[in-house]
Amino acid sequence: MIAASLFSWSLATIAAGFSRSPAVFLVWRGVVGLTEGFYFPAAVGLIGSVFGEQRRARALSMHGIAQFAGIAAGGWLGGWLADHFGWRTASWTLGGVGILYFLVLWNVLPSTSTGAVSRQAAPVWYLAPPLVGPARPGVLTHVFPALDDLRLAS
């Protein structure tokens, strides 16, 4: 669900860049909002499945921090792109990056189709929401690439 949410978010973001009227743009932005609604419950479910009781609160806290940091940084990045390259280019760029990240997530996120996910030590970037889209890797992993190898210890 996380990867599907990111993919649909990316397509809707790209489509918004092709809007020729404010009404069409608002429709696509509404679709973007709907696709974001699928991310959070799936992410919290994944965190609950991957992290045991001893580490779950910390993992959810990290997810929340990364989500707000991603919102702040994503707003700044989108504004900067729009100022320098135009809003259409910003929309296409962010949607394109989301599709690239979707390809990564599709191959990396643990499958929950069986209803069971291993409680192995998960890398922090599983938790971090996006600079781009609902499942983006988050500010923490962009600023501190070493966090990719970090395991949340009790």
Biggest β-sheet description: none
- How much beta, percentage-wise? under 5%
Number of H- or I-type helical stretches: 6
Distance between the termini: 28 Å
Describe the structure.
By secondary structure, the chain is mainly alpha-helical. 68% of the residues lie in helices and 0% in strands. It contains six helices and no strands. It has helices at 2-17, 22-37, 39-50, 53-85, 87-108, 139-143. Helix 1 (2-17) runs antiparallel to helix 3 and helix 3 (39-50) packs antiparallel against helix 4. It is elongated and about 50 Å long. The two termini are 28 Å apart. 33% of the residues are buried.
What is the fold's blueprint, element by element?
Elements: H1 2-17, H2 22-37, H3 39-50, H4 53-85, H5 87-108, H6 139-143
Helix pairs in contact: 1-2, 1-3, 1-5, 3-4, 4-5
